[in-house]
Every structure is written in structure tokens, then in C-alpha cells.
Amino acid sequence: MLRPSALMLDFGGVSCISYSMRIFVIGGAGYIGSHVTRGLLDAGHQVCVYDNMSSGAKENIFPETRFIHGDILDYTTLLEAMREGWDAVVYLAALKAVGESMLYPEKYSVNNINGTVYILNAMCAAGVKYICFSSSAAVYGQPVRTPIDEEHPLNPENFYGFTKLEIERFLAWYERLKGLRYASLRYFNAAGYDTAGRVRGLERNPANLLPVIMETAAGIRPRLQIFGADYPTRDGTCIRDYIHVSDLAQAHLLALNFIREKDESLTVNLGSETGLSVREIVEASRRITGKPIPEEITARRPGDPAALTASAAKAKRLLGWKARYSDADTLISSTWNVYNL
Ligand code: WQD
Fold it and tell me: Which of 3, 132, 222, 288 could form a disulfide with 183 if both were Cys (CB 3.0 to 4.6 A apart)?
């Protein structure tokens, strides 16, 4: 159901025509989901957010969106919402704590895997053909080479990554058997906040590096623990590929256009292709916030690879996508803007 009004969009020099769509964003009140919703609204799409608010924030729900408080495991509510006539689903809802997934795999199986089955079945029943899925670099496991491209072996190290890989396999089967078209977007380390300050919801009990640093800078935590400074990297701390959530949001727009226009599915990495060490992030954070950010070096965290960086060549080639906001200063200053109250 495409609207006749075509919009010209400019993604960092790559222009494309986009049609206004009605998009059902599952998990749209979360940290990444709210940025994706913001990007969809900015591009002129109509959005309905479906979220159970287990980790979403009320202030992340924009007034322009319709909101349905619902759970992906509540098939009746999900199907009813799905039948309202959507052009595409964006599926971000998931449990995502790596450590927790190793302790409580049952919870991750039910939420991530069963939840996916319900979403796909509801899409089939309601005749929604397109889905953009939030996958993860966790599907690769310990890198056997870097930068990691999409042909890298798939060998998840944790149960969370396993659920993401299983979901990708469900998508491929539903494509084959039901004609669904999907974009599976393998995020590296999502970070940053909307540079215009329009997303302000904070994650509760964050465990990822940047929010932990910000909570330390803001005095919410006494100190940052650096999990190991004896890695074989340039300064001994782990290197990661941090990708700004607004760059992720743009990739969703491009991926939805791609699968609709080409009528084919897509699996791509989304990373900045730049490695930043923990120490580099901490030092840049001290400079940008002007706060001391006390630290202590602790033992390595089990399962942490020394360095992880993405090849985003495929996303560049197929989608014309390129990270624009993923430099250390933009990542940190946009996040501090939200934490510095
Ligand atoms: C980054 C670096 C830590 C916190 C995770 C998932 C991955 C993906 C992205 C979803 C590491 C170090 C961290 C702290 C620290 N998630 N660190 N002190 O583990 O690279 O990736 O999020 O798909 O699947 O595993 O991210 O932010 O936890 O850690 O020293 O308090 O910061 O050791 O080197 P990670 P992270």
C-alpha cells in the first residue's frame, strides 16, 4: 500500500526516492528503536510503535506515532495490530544482555525465538511481506579475521548471539516458503544519541561501555571498571567498532527501500569500520565531559575478543550507506548531552 507522494531523500550524498509507508515498529520505544522511529518519521513515513515497555521508555514515544502497549508473546494482540494494514515491520524487540543469556537461556528462547515465530506467523496471516530485523555481530563469535565481513564463519559464543542467528535462519525459511522479504542488519556496537537531542530516554541498568562511562561522569557510579588492559592491542584495552544509532536508523530506511524495490532479501553488517579502544573512549569522554571519570583496571571479562571491527563494504555497495555520526566525539558528546542533567 504505497502512498503516491514520493519524497527525495539525501543520505550523505546518495539520493533516493522513497515512498511514504505505514511501518509497524516492534520495540520502537527502546534505545535503538526510538532512533529508528525518529528516522522513519523524519523521512515522512507513518509509524506505529508496538512495545511491551520492559526496557522501553515513555519519553521515547513520539507524539506523531500511534502506540500499542503489547507483547510479542501475546499473539492475539499482535495479530490484531498486524491486521491494521502495514507495508513493513521493523523488528527490534529482544532481550539483549549477553551475560544474562548464558544464565537464563530459557528466557531468551521464549522471548527471542518464540517471539519471532509469532511475529512471522502474524505477518503471514495479515499479509505483511517486508521485515527489517535487528541482528547482531554476535552471530560471528570470536573473530577468525578482521575486519569481519558477512562471509565470516557464523559461530556465536553466547546464547544471545545464537538466538539472533536462529532468527536469521527462520527469516530465510519464511522467505523460501512464504515469500517474505527481509533485511537482516548485523549491528556492531550501537552507541550515541540523536545529535539534535530529540531522544532522551535512558537505558535502565546499562552494561555497555558508553552508558557506563556516562553514568560515572554524571556521578551515578563511583568508578568505571576497565575489563582488562593486557590485550594485544595498541594500548592493551579491547577495540570495538562503535556505530551511531542515527547511522543505524538511516540504514533501516535504505534497507526497507532496497527489499521493497528489488523484491529481494538482504543480510548486511552495520559498523563504522573504525576501531576504538576502551582507553581511547575513556580519554575522549574525560575531555568532552570535563569530568574525572575514575577508573580501575579489573580482570578480563570472559568471552571478550581483543578486537572486533566490521567490514561495511556490502552495505555501502548495495545500499549506498555510510556511517556519518560514528566518530568518537559525536558518539560521546551526543550521549553526554542526554546524561548531563
Ligand atoms: C565494549 C568494550 C568491554 C563495560 C555487546 C554484545 C554484542 C552487541 C554489542 C548486541 C569491551 C569494555 C564494557 C564496562 C569495560 N550487542 N567494557 N567496562 O561486549 O563489545 O558488545 O554489545 O547485539 O553482542 O556483546 O559491548 O559495551 O559491553 O563492551 O571495560 O563496564 O568495553 O570489555 O571491550 P560488547 P560492551
Answer: 132
For the beta carbon of residue 179, count every other beta carbon within 10 angstroms: 10
CATH of the domain at 288: 3.90.25.10
Whether 187 sits among the annotated catalytic residues: the reply is: no
CA distances from 337 to 43, 79, 222 (A): 24, 39, 20
Angle, alpha carbons 247-326-313 (nearest 5°): 70
Decide whether any atom of ligand 1 lies within 6 Å of the 240 Cβ: yes
Q: For a ligand 1 pocket test, name from 91, 92, 235, 278 the mutation site with the most ligand atoms within 8 angstroms of its C-beta.
A: 278
Mean pLDDT of 125-145: 97
pTM: 0.95
| 290-295: average pLDDT | 98
Question: What is the total count of domains within the chain?
Answer: 2
Q: Would the CB of 331 count as within 6 Å of ligand 1?
A: no
Task: Give nearest CA residue, ligand 1 atom 22.
Answer: 189
263 lies in the same domain as 277: no
Domain that holds residue 262: 8-192+243-270
Ligand 1: residue whose CA is nearest its atom 9: 189
